[in-house]
Write a structure and sequence with these properties.
Blueprint lengths: L7 H7 L10 H14 L17 E6 L9 E2 L3 E2 H18 L3 E4 L9 H9 L4 E9 L9 E5 L5 H11 L7 E6 L3 H4 L5 E8 L3 H7 L2 H19 L9 E3 L18
The structure holds zinc ion (ZN).
Length: about 260
């Protein structure tokens, strides 16, 4: 989360979120009007139901490059925490026989449409996006998981319950959201907010390798158990070539998820 996420794509979803419930109306009203006038809300992708057949997991580390996401003196930058967590998830899935595709494997920016394009180019995949949270109330804490397609709800439930079975990790629940990386995805897609960088205690925990490792293990275990047994096959890993900055296309939209 960051100021630049106050954007078209997040406006409707953000308004449902407790940490932003107090966001002033001057923000919501003009955007809603703009949507109505311009009709610029793109329709959702048709989602393939791979919820119990997937062999490939697209792991999306939120933000990157000039887009730090949220940042705090206790937690550092969201982009770094998200990348570190994504890089910890991938080998655990490969060890279980899955193919993995990272939308980024370094500190560079990938537009949201680039991220969904990477996902939509796969065969038989799911998409898992890793973020960390912020809110105006420093006491806000816990993990929440978002989905858009009903085909992703069970995976979202499982990830949320697995992560929040970690000691001291509270659940804020599983929620639907109209985030661009979710609604334009042709595969079941979820977005995990792994903790609040605006909460000093929680941010300090998010900054530790131990927490990120536990978070990554929980997410990977949920993905593995949701899929059920895989037939033996060679797993592979990749960083999507379309994720390179050179292929990023026109200037990015302000939305960051
Ligand atoms: Zn974020």
């Amino acid at each position: 989360m960051s100021s630049i996420e106050r954007s078209f794509d997040n406006a409707s979803a953000e308004s449902k979120r407790a940490p932003h419930a107090l966001r002033p109306l001057w923000f919501a009203v003009p955007l809603a009007t703009l949507f109505a006038l311009a009709g610029c809300e793109t329709p959702s992708a048709t989602v393939k139901n791979t919820s119990h057949t997937y062999r490939t997991v697209v792991i999306d580390a939120g933000h990157g490059g000039q887009d730090n996401g949220t940042r705090s003196r206790w937690g550092g930058t969201e982009k770094a925490a998200a990348l570190d967590t994504a890089l910890r998830i991938a080998p655990k899935l490969r060890a279980a026989g899955f193919n993995t595709v990272l939308t980024r494997n370094g500190d560079y920016f990938v537009p949201l449409d680039g991220r969904t394009r990477i996902s939509n180019h796969q065969e038989n995949a799911i998409f898992v996006s890793v973020h960390f949270n912020e809110g105006p109330n420093r006491k806000a804490h816990g993990v929440e998981t978002y989905y858009h397609s009903p085909f992703a709800q069970e995976l979202a439930d499982r990830i949320e319950s697995t992560v929040t079975s970690l000691p001291g990790v509270a659940s804020r629940g599983v929620k639907t959201a109209n985030y661009r990386v979710l609604r334009n995805n042709e595969y079941p897609a979820v977005l995990i907010e792994g903790g609040f960088f605006s909460n000093p205690k929680e941010a300090a925990r998010c900054a530790t390798p131990a927490y990120r490792e536990a978070l990554a293990s929980s997410i990977a275990n949920a993905i593995i158990s949701e899929r059920g047994p895989l037939q033996p096959a060679q797993s592979s890993s990749a960083v999507a070539t379309t994720a390179s900055p050179a292929a990023a296309g026109p200037a990015p939209l302000p939305a960051t998820r």
